[in-house]
Design a protein that fits this description.
By secondary structure, this protein is mainly alpha-helical. It has a single domain, classed as dinb family like domain (Four Helix Bundle (Hemerythrin (Met), subunit A), Up-down Bundle). It has seven helices and two strands, in the order αααααββαα. Strands 1-2 form a two-stranded antiparallel ribbon. Helix 1 packs antiparallel against helix 5 and helix 1 runs parallel beside helix 6.
């Protein structure tokens, strides 16, 4: 079973990387002012959604890099990124070019992390102290949450694009990987 986790997460990392690239290609066709326009969603704008899910990825990668010895190479790669939590509508990355550079780098880190993690480590438990106190997490569940979180927020972006009548479809794992 352990080997199945590794293969599955390698597939999800590749899928998310390619799908994020496809989403960015759609966004690059837009007027940049539309990306920061308040469209009434929880995170206000398309860039607000993108900032939120990228910040969450960076935060969890920091946790994984400090709690799993096989992934300690991650922490130095993330040092230049902000650690403060964003409020809805706040932006660290204000342009698509800024976002794209960081998104692609983080997607590469995901692929390297999963490749570096022995299959036997996916069922391991890490204890994280955070806003909710000390909690135990199973490593494979963290990765599943992170990829699911990305899918959820790409869906949010898709709905906003639909409302703007901008064609988008970057969702199919079977055609991509």
């Amino acid at each position: 079973m352990d080997g199945d986790f590794k293969e599955m997460f390698q597939t999800l990392a590749r899928y998310n990387k390619l799908t994020n690239q496809d989403m960015v290609k759609v966004l690059e066709t837009m007027d940049p002012t539309k990306l920061i326009e308040d469209l009434g969603s929880y995170y206000k704008s398309i860039m607000g959604v993108l900032n939120h899910h990228l910040q969450a990825d960076i935060g969890w990668l920091r946790i994984l890099g400090t709690h799993i010895s096989y992934l300690n190479f991650i922490s130095p790669l993330l040092e230049r990124f902000p650690t403060e939590r964003l409020s809805p509508g706040q932006l660290y990355w204000t342009s698509l070019d800024e976002y794209k550079t960081v998104r692609y780098e983080i997607d590469d880190i995901y692929e390297k992390a999963i490749s570096s993690l022995p299959a036997s480590e996916f069922p391991s438990i890490i204890t994280v102290e955070g806003r909710r106190g000390k909690l135990d997490y199973v490593t494979w569940r963290i990765f599943l949450h992170l990829f699911n979180h990305q899918t959820h927020h790409r869906g949010s972006v898709s709905v906003l694009l639909d409302q703007l009548n901008i064609e988008n479809d970057y969702s199919n794992l079977l055609w991509k990987v």
